Amino acid sequence: MELFKSMDTSGEAGQNENENNLKPVADQEVEKVQCLIIGSGPAGYTAAIYAARANLNPVLYEGLQPGGQLTTTTEVENYPGYPEGVTGPVMMEDLKKQAERFGTDIRWGIATSVDFSGENHIVVIDKKKMIEAEAVIIATGATAKYLGLEAEKKYAGGGVSACATCDGFFYKGKDVAVVGGGDTAAEEALYLAGIVRKVYLIIRKDYMRASKVMVERVENTKNIEVLYEHNTKDLYGENGVEGAILLHKMGTPEEKEVRIEISGFFLAIGHTPNSEIFKDYIETDEVGYIKTDAPGSKTTVKGVFACGDVMDSTYRQAVTAAGSGCKAAIDVERYLGEKHS
């Protein structure tokens, strides 16, 4: 699910639509704010907490999925400050309340288009409301890629996960499967191998596209079984995932259905950063992750900053996202201080 939808700017029709969406509806005035935050996961809420305490009067738009990806997670046990663990939705609600406590103006709305060509920055919400901000913090996150099975939705939070580091602990001593053939999938499988009883690595091709060293590590790990030329057909289970139905050599005369008994099903086929509406102005890498001046949060546009999973393709953890949100707010405070000095 994309948290922040992009406009189609291809061709003349798309350009006209984008231009129309950068005009106020009727005679509506443009709302001017100091600091606008787009996104409401750990990065966005933390940025809001710091910005509000610095008297920057931040306005935060939550997006299509308030709280971000963590709202689809059941138990979170690796975030500091929660010794007994906490559910993703509860933790996001705690962060939201903390941001509101310091005065953040939190609103429902989706950023649909932007214009970062001027000194101040224009963001259009829901294709109609126009915001002019002195500084913008982009915290729109990333969306995990899924296979498109109905069972992935059915068992979300009940055996299906896109983060082994986040959820692997819950499958200690059990059998699980990882889907993917790249370095990320290999890393996830190796991480899980240290926790669970057995890992099935499901790869649709007859080879791994991961780096040579990662392939060797996988092949030398005794409790990882690589299933080449297998595609996932479905998942099954009464109270959560209990197994997967695979197709070996799908589409060939040798096609055969295979069943494996597992308790966890991990997707490791990549993420899509929610950066589409910013690409005309901000530099991204080939995948779409926003480039920043590491270790800072400045983008290639003056006065625009990015934090969280939309700029982090490496760690993708709640705690690292929160840390980057802190950095973004501090960078904004310094930027505005210098601008008005």
What does this entry show, briefly?
Helix 2 packs parallel to helix 3, helix 2 runs parallel beside helix 8 and helix 6 packs parallel to helix 7.
Description:
The protein has helices at residues 11-20, 42-53, 88-101, 150-154, 164-167, 183-193, 212-219, 318-340; strands at residues 31-38, 59-61, 75-76, 86-87, 105-107, 111-115, 121-125, 129-138, 142-144, 160-161, 175-179, 198-202, 224-227, 230-236, 243-248, 256-261, 264-267, 271-273, 304-306. It has 341 residues and is an alpha/beta fold. The chain has two domains: 11-143 and 271-340, FAD/NAD(P)-binding domain, CATH 3.50.50.60; 146-267, FAD/NAD(P)-binding domain (3-Layer(bba) Sandwich), CATH 3.50.50.60. The strands form five sheets. Strands 1, 2, 5, 6, 7, 8 and 19 form a seven-stranded mixed β-sheet that branches. A five-stranded parallel β-sheet has the order 10-17-11-12-13, with helices on one face. A hairpin with a 5-residue loop joins strand 6 (111-115) and strand 7. The chain starts with 10 loop residues before the first helix and ends with a helix.
